Amino acid sequence: MPAAAAPHPPGLQLPITGMSCTACSARVEKALLTVPGVAAASVNPATDTAIVQWAAVPTGPAAAAALVAMVAAVEQAGYGVPTQTLQLQITGMTCAACAGRIEKALLKLPGVLQASVNLATDQASVRLLAGIAPAEVLAAVQRAGYGGRLPGDGTGPGATGKDGPGPGAAPGAATPVWPVLLGAALTLPLVAPMLLQPLGIHAMLPGMLQLLLAGVVQVVLGARFYRAAWRAVRAGSGNMDLLVALGTSAAFGLSVALLWQHGSTPGMPHLYFEASASVITLVLLGKWLEGRAKRQTTEAIRALNALRPSTARVLRGGVETEVPLHEVQRGDLVSVRPGERIAVDGRVQAGRSHVDESLITGEALPLAKGPGDAVTGGAINGEGALQVQTVAVGAETALARIVRLVESAQAGKAPVQRLVDRVSAVFVPVVLAIAAVTLGGWWLAGAGWEAALINAVSVLVIACPCALGLATPTAIMVGTGRAARHGILIQDAAALERAHAVTVVAFDKTGTLTQGQPGVVAVLPAPGQTAGELLRLAAALQQGSEHPLARAVLQEAGRLALAWPGPAEVQGLQALPGRGLQAQVQGRQLLLGSPRLLQESGADGQALAAAATQLAAEGRTVSWLMEAAEGTAGTAAAAGSPPRVLGLLAFGDALKPQAAAAIARLHAMGVKTVLLTGDNRGSAQAVARSLGIDDVQAEVLPADKAAAVQALRQQGAVVAMVGDGINDAPALAAADVGMAMGTGTDVAMATAGVTLMRGDPALVADALDISRRTWATLQRGLFWAFAYNVVGLPLAALGYLNPVWAGAAMALSSVSVVANALLLRRWQPPARTDAAPQVTAAPAPVA
After folding, report:
1. What per-residue confidence (pLDDT) applies to 837?
2. Catalytic residue IDs
């Protein structure tokens, strides 16, 4: 969770939107005065600002609560307080303590509501009142001793940290390797004699030469640690750099003192130059390895950004012109050649091809596209040339929204990070206290200052808050990035953390488990008739109609490759309002319509009555096909013989082909499934039986879906709700984790914490699986980070680790934590093949 905001000055200026008269300003003033602690409020309608005077300036957590309360009070009165969110790239951070110090510095700015700094991405997210210049925020970062810049701005204030690139460089920038190589070259002659001594080889360098080599490492390569340590001390806190600077300075200073005391006395005193030089070199090596590993954690964002073409070919006045992408406007016609990336979101106006959207939606197979079909910018065009009319460009495109969602999720902090932040805040002072106790304890035990100081140095250099600070964000970055590559957009770290514990998944039916449009689910011929002939005649009657049921008949006939009579063979087509239609097909007078038409015509449907009743109970729409005797079409039987029933067709919302396998996989994961739908109970029960869903709640009004979800939570379940419509939004918000189908409405996707980029129910199990894997990786990283310090610090204090090995262990600790997170890159959803579309049990399918 972001830290609390700093106290605000007595005269806080608050921007207001939505005011239109003096009555508005009076209402805003009245609303602000209801906030506890506000002594006076004055609203200026000319400038759309409010000046708030505090009775007593709030401090600590109360400051954030007061500002949030003011914003809420204004919004409740029907007006708005404009805010902005800045994303900053931070340089110079080396450990979790650095991130905490930057958060505190940002939250000292008046008008800052929240600030969150991510050590793994070297980024800060700051939410503040509109009107505050970014330069003020960057200045606060610089005052804390770090560098900062806005993304894409390499020349703005604080564009480089005071230490330049290096340990705090952004993950996207390579950390220079030359300090590591130089340190290794200078340190190796100091460490080699120690390694050769057990072999009986004595090759100790003269003391002055050791001083020269170690001095270069200490002063030149170690300068960055001194600068960062000084900034930390000046800010009243500590960090890893302070521990490294103190520990190496103590070892280097002790060696210089021993060398000075020895003077011209024959022999060589025991020096510790190799300890100070080794620690600095190993820390530099660890930071370099950590930087390389952190770059790999941002692979998903770089892959998504790489999908953006830089130019597009626009057709203007019949002439094809290549222009920069930012010059393309909505409505422009863009030409896409075979094999190229589509530059914009749009609709195909001309041409046919197959489009590979795998890196955007995770869809494994290229999709056929033709005139009228939507295409997504960043997808790869296949074998055909396309002309695409632009509907979205720049930040409005699907790819840009995906990148923003992934970046937002990666920049956020999971709730478990609060514990880590509390530990990191006191970590350095505790380590300094342990080092002081170690120094005093060994001296009082009679070991002498030399041994006492070296053991204290080991304590200082083995302790590292970096591993603690990296365990959570690196796991979240890799997990959310990997999920995005497979069509699962996790909008915040909290949703990822909650999803791992889900025990119940509640599904909406229409559009989530079903196709969301009617299809033919049963074709039942009367005795003496065939299903194929029945469907062929129905298709002849329905051709040319735009009614959804007519399209369903034609699609089913086409799927079965049936040939039906053309328009020339259909005469006298007439609609029967509220009943159906009639026409003469190849000389036969046919009627197709509802049970009401069957009843009014006097036709005998007794042979299929039981099947029709069952289908109606399941929520199916039943249409009867009849052949009329001359003079009886569309009338009751009084005018002659009643029509002869040829059969019936049943229509329903067909299940998605992946739905049954998705439910089965959730059950295999130990997750209970529930169907929440507004449809009638018969239809809902039929779907549940077909898919194996555990529980059904049917005829649930949209407003009651949220209550049903809340009732499941009150029973102790951790609930994920999956839906796609506006009516699902309250239930998505009420669930522990809301999952919206990307094929659904924007309202549903805005409410949900997880967006599934394809309308594939199998992605629900994939989302739970990646969240469980990420949570396990995060816990494993935190365990090793805590265990490393819990075990290493006592060993160093007891004298079992010399500074060289302590430094090596410290350098490799954070590398191991990041490497643990990178194991998530191997996650893949299980391979699956889509089965044929399933329908609920019908009395007799088409033969």
Report:
1. 35
2. 508
